[in-house]
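Customer ticket, subject: "Can you confirm the structure for Phage integrase SAM-like domain-containing protein?"

Message body: Hello, I'm evaluating your service for our small team and ran a test protein. I'd like someone to confirm that this is what the system normally returns, since I don't have a reference to compare against.
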Amino acid sequence: MGRFLTKNYDAPSVRHTTCEAHRYVLKNHILPWIGDCPLESLTTQKIEEFLEEHQLHGNKRNGKPLSQQTMRHIQNLLSKVLSQAVNRGLIERNPVQGICRSAPKQVKATILADNEIRDYLSAAKDFHKLTERVLMEDLYDRTPHILDHAITILLG
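Agent reply: Thanks for trying us out. I re-ran your input and got the following:
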């Protein structure tokens, strides 16, 4: 399996930087797990187990979880290589197909209109003025007590 993977990933058909990224993923994530595994013994269940375990503890530097983006790279590259194995008649079906991994959460940003931005900044400025006023009043109210306490300590 390891030889098939290293010879049949998409090296000739992609840019050099993509090829290097794929080589890194193969070397550090995929080959250590299935490099010695016979191609025909790979099942969807084995690959799902690998992906789950790898997501939780796949960071070799610290044993922590891998990012969703890294997991997508791993799964996509593995799928691409195993599709080549199907096309060459080495296996009947790609065991990666049908594995659904959760897509990263999409954040929907609301773009403010110019007048909304002005209103927001004005409110922030007013809030700052209010906060400053409350702090000044608090300090003013407490100043006599603070001065009395300081005088008592100095004379005490």
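A couple of notes from the result: The helical segments are 2-8, 16-34, 44-57, 68-87, 114-155. Residues 114-155 form the longest helix (42 residues). Feel free to reply with more questions.
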